[in-house]
Amino acid sequence: MFVGFLEDESALVLEVDGSGCYTSTLFVKEHTAHENLWQGERSGVKASQQLTAVDNTENINNLETHLIKANVQVSNQEPSLSALTQI
Description:
The chain is α+β, with helices and mostly antiparallel strands. Helix content is 25%, strand content 20%. The chain has one domain (11-83): 3-Layer(aba) Sandwich (Creatine Amidinohydrolase, Chain A, domain 1). The chain is built from three helices and three strands; from the N terminus they run ββααβα. It has a three-stranded mixed sheet, covered by helices on one side.
């Protein structure tokens, strides 16, 4: 699924249930007013869901907790190039 979301510090997680249905969650960074002034506006959690075709959006700070709850092994190491996918 290409959602066309090009902001850095974001991740798309696709989860498949037992019946083969999937749920998409886009994790994005929220900016403060100060960051928006100096680094430019970002979509944020609410607007990114409206801009894309994903089912859910969450703050990128919740990604590790989400993956742990989904029983995905989390590593602090850089991912290999084969594991990277641009969304």
